[in-house]
Amino acid sequence: MKLHGIRLDGSVESNNWGGYAVTGKAFTDAKGSWLVPKANCTKTPDSYAVIWVGFDGYSSPTVEQTGTLIYCNGTSAEYYSWYEYYPQEAILLVPTVPESPGDKISAEASYNGSQFTLTIANETTGKSFSKKSKVAAKRSSAEFVVEAPSSDTGILPLSDFAKTSLGQDFTAVNDTNYATNGSVTGPISDFGGSVKEIIMVNGEGKDKAVPSALKTDGSSFRVAWKSE
User: Is 56 left (phi over 0), alpha (psi -120 to 50) or beta?
Assistant: First the structure.
């Protein structure tokens, strides 16, 4: 995550993330779900947005993550499932787990003491994929995030995704936007003071993507696109 600053309400500003993270030690599971939004590529051509769940990246150099990629190829929207054991390159799951606007996606990052497993499933189509890997990682956070991805040239333009809805209240996928570490198993809100609300801003501090407050289930929220 590229940190921008801290607001008076305690929320974190980031140049490339919007959503929620929970911090701690020895995370072993993170589960998320969301609805694939429809991108307005006429408004934001040649742009990108990713929605993902995973471990690390908040305050560590590695990330174990899987999710949805929105790519505005010119003014045409393309949607992909993907996974990444960063700093290794992200892998697109074409055509293993195709995605379309409105599809219900669930995803999980888990650790069993020796290796990680990343799993993504399109609950609408029934297609799924898992990838195991042994990598060195801190497991110091779990994330539920919309991101403006980066390339060698820096942060890429953020696609206008309007809004995306994450968590059980919106997807009816049980126990999602949940995490497990050495002391807590439960929804985002169960992590108390370790919950980080993250607002994506541009270099001038203008909001780009903003999460809502958590709903009463303690896990579900929306992220709204504001600007590029």
Answer: left
